[in-house]
Design a protein that fits this description.
It contains 6 helices and 7 strands; from the N terminus they run E-H-E-H-H-E-H-E-E-E-H-E-H. Strand 4 and strand 5 form a beta hairpin. It has one domain: Flavodoxin domain (Rossmann fold, 3-Layer(aba) Sandwich), CATH 3.40.50. It has about 230 residues and is α/β, with parallel strands linked by helices. A 5-stranded parallel beta sheet has the order 2-1-3-6-7, with helices on both faces. The chain has a two-stranded antiparallel sheet with strand order 4-5. It catalyses: N,N-dimethyl-1,4-phenylenediamine + anthranilate + 2 NAD(+) = 2-(4-dimethylaminophenyl)diazenylbenzoate + 2 NADH + 2 H(+); 2 a quinone + NADH + H(+) = 2 a 1,4-benzosemiquinone + NAD(+). It comes from Thalassospira lohafexi.
């Protein structure tokens, strides 16, 4: 069985195909899950809506607790890390992470950044030893997990080699820290022209949903092969 961690981070409730002014990224992530369930209805889906219920941001107490050895932590330190523990446990259970991540002011929503900051954690998802020869950091997340970033943006040309690709700080800002902790199998699709609301928007939606279907097929084949090995 494959486990999927489904994350939505849009501040807009509802999907654009079901609600006026609904979220395009929620539409794509829901499409992914629907297509996956069509082929693999018994797989486990963990759902986390950080757009509606944002994780607490990292604080000084959080950092202090995270860099304290577990056996030396005081009760308040365990409390400070409780939500992070839950989010990390969900991540570690998952084989595929599918994240709806809209573009806000050229980057990801603050809610998604808060999730990232809680799961990139010393001793849980990456190791650190300043006495280690060479690079003192190393990834701790194993299992060949896959990350799928499903985005939406108001303008167009943010994709690789696009007219304003240099202004896109969404996928890179998500993929880089996940790669740092060991998640290197990366996929993505995005709806553009959202603010235009014309035929270009509709075509972009169709193209993005087609790419989502391709990603689902590729990942099902990949994880079927791995589970059979």
């Amino acid at each position: 069985m494959t486990t999927i961690l489904h994350i939505d981070s849009s501040a807009r409730p509802g999907r654009s195909d079901q609600k006026q002014h609904g979220s395009q990224s929620r539409r794509l992530s829901a499409k992914f899950i629907e297509l996956w369930r069509t082929q693999r209805p018994d797989d486990e889906i963990i759902y986390r809506d950080v757009g509606a219920s944002p994780p607490k941001p990292v604080t000084g107490d959080w950092v202090h607790a995270a860099f304290t050895k577990p056996e030396q932590r005081e009760d308040w330190m365990h409390d400070a890390l409780a939500q992070s523990d839950t989010l990390v446990d969900e991540l570690l259970r998952a084989d595929v992470i599918v994240a709806g991540v809209p573009m806000y002011n050229f980057g990801m929503p603050a809610q998604m950044k808060a999730w990232l900051d809680n799961i990139v954690r010393v001793g849980r998802t990456f190791g650190f030893d300043r006495t280690r020869d060479g690079v003192p950091y190393w990834p701790m997340v194993t299992g060949n997990k896959s990350i799928v970033a499903l985005s939406s943006r108001g303008d167009y040309g943010y994709g690789p080699d696009g007219r304003i690709a240099h202004l896109n700080f969404v996928e890179g800002a998500l993929f880089t820290p996940l790669e740092y902790i060991g998640i290197t199998d990366q996929y993505g699709a995005a709806i553009e022209y959202d603010e235009f609301a014309d035929n270009r928007t509709r075509q972009s939606i169709a193209d993005a949903e087609g790419e989502v279907a391709n990603i689902v097929d590729r990942l099902i084949a990949k994880h079927r092969t791995e589970n059979a090995a």
